[in-house]
């Protein structure tokens, strides 16, 4: 594989319903833990294990000093597994298991190893095209949790909600599954069905959802009868920058009175896309976010390009499904006083992941920094509090009312 420059993602988790994402498309994301040790044989003869195409992940198998890893005991473990196991061992799965277990031991839910297949699924989600039910997942406190169902697709149509806990998949318990395992079970060929048991408000609810081809642009927009431009961003993918700028130019040409930026249920995505979207409102040089590592600033991201929407009254809508990249935009516009934030508190993911392609076709998704809003706040596990708190109840959803959007329109009028 030709080595490519790593891309940075601010990713929640991916329903590689894929997943998360990416999801990450992780996204956000937990990791499969497999007791694989076959890779030891590769390095036992030469004293190294090659994990990365650029050599950054080459670790000693011999010396446990000076910050190097020791793999003592793994050879014995593998030999015992091979001689004692009643069944067939899959070498590829064992190799993936070694890598996944190593990365999981870092203890960060957003740092994970993706196999070649998982990497392909991740990229499919970021591009907005995959087969499944259309939802974003994460693993929280050992539970598989829905971050947000994608608008207009089977998960949302069936009635799944943000914060729903998946307890069973096709009748089997999901409690001990990794995120990746859960996603594999949920994802499948379009036209086939998956049965889920959801825990909501402490009560189990059954769902049977028919999978579809999930293909959707990341940005939709319109100008309503009151002359307000409505821009809805469902994720921050490869097409987000171009589409959001196209929407902004159309808003400008139609002399809109204000803009409603709806990022409810947006699980995140590409960090750079969030910076470019923020730049539609912010003057060149304004801080969008700050990255810190070990408490030290390593990079400031600043607005650039033509701020097409600068000065236009703007309301940003967020909720508990708004995460990472969407939180970057909401935080940047709020702290720079370019917009008012309405809705409910966002998810709270304040870390940045970077993808590093590996020789085996897999990818290491690793947390490289924490990000801070222009006012210097890291929102990890805290989220962004709206300026105007407006709840959306179950009764509102069932009656197809949207008091959050109504409140935004009232403010813009």
Protein model, in words:
The structure is a single chain. 48% of the residues are buried. Strands 1, 4, 16, 17, 18, 21 and 22 form a seven-stranded antiparallel sheet that branches. It is built from eleven helices and 23 strands. It is α+β, with helices and mostly antiparallel strands and 413 residues long. Strand 14, helix 7 and strand 15 form a beta-alpha-beta unit. Helix content is 25%, strand content 28%. The protein starts with 7 loop residues before the first strand and ends with a helix. The longest helix has 14 residues. The chain has three domains: 111 residues, no CATH class; 86 residues, PDZ domain (Pdz3 Domain), CATH 2.30.42.10; 196 residues, 2-enoyl-CoA Hydratase, Chain A, domain 1, CATH 3.90.226. Helix 7 packs parallel to helix 8 and helix 8 runs parallel beside helix 9.
Mind sketching the topology for me?
Blueprint: E1 8-11, H1 40-44, E2 48-49, E3 59-60, H2 74-84, H3 91-104, E4 112-114, H4 116-127, E5 129-132, E6 135-140, E7 143-149, H5 154-158, E8 165-169, E9 172-173, H6 179-186, E10 193-200, E11 203-210, E12 212-215, E13 219-223, E14 228-233, H7 240-253, E15 258-262, E16 268-270, H8 271-278, E17 287-293, E18 296-302, E19 314-318, H9 325-335, E20 340-343, E21 351-357, E22 363-372, E23 388-389, H10 394-398, H11 403-412
Helix pairs in contact: 7-8, 8-9
């Amino acid at each position: 594989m030709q080595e490519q420059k790593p891309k940075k993602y601010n990713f929640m988790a991916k329903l590689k319903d894929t997943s998360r994402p990416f999801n990450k498309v992780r996204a956000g994301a937990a990791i499969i833990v497999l007791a694989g040790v076959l890779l030891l044989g590769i390095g036992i003869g030469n004293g190294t294990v090659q994990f990365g195409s650029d050599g950054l992940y080459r670790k000693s198998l011999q010396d446990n000093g000076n910050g190097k890893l020791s793999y003592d005991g793994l050879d014995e473990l593998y030999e015992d597994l091979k001689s004692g196991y009643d069944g067939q061992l899959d070498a590829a799965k064992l190799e993936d298991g070694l890598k996944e277990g190593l990365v999981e031991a870092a203890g960060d839910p957003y740092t994970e190893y993706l196999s070649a297949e998982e990497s392909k699924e991740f990229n499919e989600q970021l591009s907005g095209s995959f087969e499944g039910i259309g939802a974003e997942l994460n693993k929280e406190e050992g539970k598989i949790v829905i971050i947000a169902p994608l608008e207009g697709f089977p998960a949302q149509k069936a009635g799944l909600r943000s914060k729903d806990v998946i307890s069973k998949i096709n009748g089997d318990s999901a409690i001990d599954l990794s995120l990746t395992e859960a996603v594999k079970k949920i994802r499948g060929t379009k036209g086939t069905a998956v049965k889920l048991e959801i825990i909501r408000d402490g009560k189990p609810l059954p769902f049977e959802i028919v999978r579809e081809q999930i293909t959707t642009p990341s940005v939709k927009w319109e100008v309503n009868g009151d002359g307000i431009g409505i821009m809805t961003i469902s994720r921050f993918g490869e097409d987000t920058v171009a589409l959001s700028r196209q929407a902004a130019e159309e808003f400008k040409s139609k002399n809109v009175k204000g803009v409603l930026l709806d990022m409810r249920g947006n699980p995140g995505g590409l960090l750079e896309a969030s910076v470019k979207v923020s730049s539609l409102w912010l003057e060149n040089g304004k801080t969008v976010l700050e990255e810190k590592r070990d408490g030290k600033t390593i990079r400031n991201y600043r607005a650039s390009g033509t701020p097409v929407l600068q000065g236009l009254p703007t309301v940003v809508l967020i909720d508990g499904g708004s995460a990472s990249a969407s939180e970057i935009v909401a935080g940047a516009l709020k702290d720079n006083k370019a917009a008012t934030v309405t809705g409910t508190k966002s998810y709270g993911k304040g870390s940045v992941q970077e993808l590093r392609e590996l020789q085996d076709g897999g990818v290491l998704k690793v947390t490289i920094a924490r990000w801070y809003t222009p006012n210097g706040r890291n929102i990890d596990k805290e989220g962004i509090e709206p300026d105007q708190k407006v709840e959306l109840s179950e009764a509102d959803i069932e009656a197809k009312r949207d008091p959050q959007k109504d409140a935004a329109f009232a403010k813009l009028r």
